[in-house]
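Hi all, posting the design record for the shared folder.

TITLE: backbone redesign
STEP: 1 of 1
STRUCTURE INPUT:
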């Protein structure tokens, strides 16, 4: 009996040693450098397209917000300058605009954002040259632009900007997780790299927007327009 008592601890120790030798201990490589994010068009082209069912906002519109609620986007349609957005008041459905052609677009709004570069300002705001603000991006099948003439804040800024309410239609939208990709009418949007890229891959046109920077990519430009990494943000 005494011998058995002495043997049991030995057997247990042997079993523990055997179990430990089968374990794999993972340690971080201090010299590992993660690969840089893909360029916007490559991200949109290579990432599989997610099922858009849960992102449907009705009337053939897909809408989403990023996980950190810094960007809200819609793959939708426009009539002239009027974009159909489920969370922003617009004149898209006004009868006076029925004569305008319907164009597929991707539209994004940011909670905090960089100022537009002078070269990217595309409107003189009714001749005043004032009120052209950042915080919005628009993609048509052949062009990407950043900023617009407006007074006041966008719905995204009203909800999730520095003085936002954190409550409203944007807060009810589904989240597009980082790395996911949506498509509608040949246009794609992907949440990645701290922001959102939207583009027409076949035409080589895209934009990338985040709270710190934006990028406009066109097929006839080898060097995309881009803000510096520490661009000034909205107040």
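Okay, here is what came back for every position:
SEQUENCE:
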């Amino acid at each position: 009996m005494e011998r058995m008592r002495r043997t049991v601890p030995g057997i247990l120790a042997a079993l523990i040693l055997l179990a430990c030798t089968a374990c794999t201990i993972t340690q971080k490589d201090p010299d590992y450098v993660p690969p840089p994010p893909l360029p916007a068009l490559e991200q949109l082209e290579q990432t599989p397209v997610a099922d858009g069912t849960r992102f449907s906002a009705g009337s053939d519109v897909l809408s989403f917000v990023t996980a950190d609620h810094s960007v809200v986007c819609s793959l939708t349609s426009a009539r002239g300058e009027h974009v159909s957005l489920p969370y922003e008041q617009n004149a898209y459905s006004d009868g006076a605009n029925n004569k305008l052609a319907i164009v597929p677009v991707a539209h994004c709004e940011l909670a905090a954002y960089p100022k537009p570069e002078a070269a990217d300002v595309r409107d003189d705001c009714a001749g005043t040259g004032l009120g052209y603000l950042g915080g919005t991006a628009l993609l048509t099948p052949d062009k990407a632009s950043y900023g617009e003439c407006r007074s006041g804040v966008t719905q995204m800024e009203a909800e999730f900007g520095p003085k936002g309410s954190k409550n409203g239609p944007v807060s009810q939208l589904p989240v597009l997780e980082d790395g996911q990709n949506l498509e509608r009418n040949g246009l794609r949007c992907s949440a990645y790299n701290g922001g959102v890229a939207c583009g027409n891959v076949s035409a080589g046109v895209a934009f990338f927007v985040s709270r710190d920077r934006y990028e406009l990519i066109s097929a006839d430009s080898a060097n995309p327009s881009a803000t510096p990494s520490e661009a000034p943000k909205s107040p």
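COMMENT: The CA atoms of residues 114 and 233 lie 4 Å apart.
Let me know if anyone wants the other runs.
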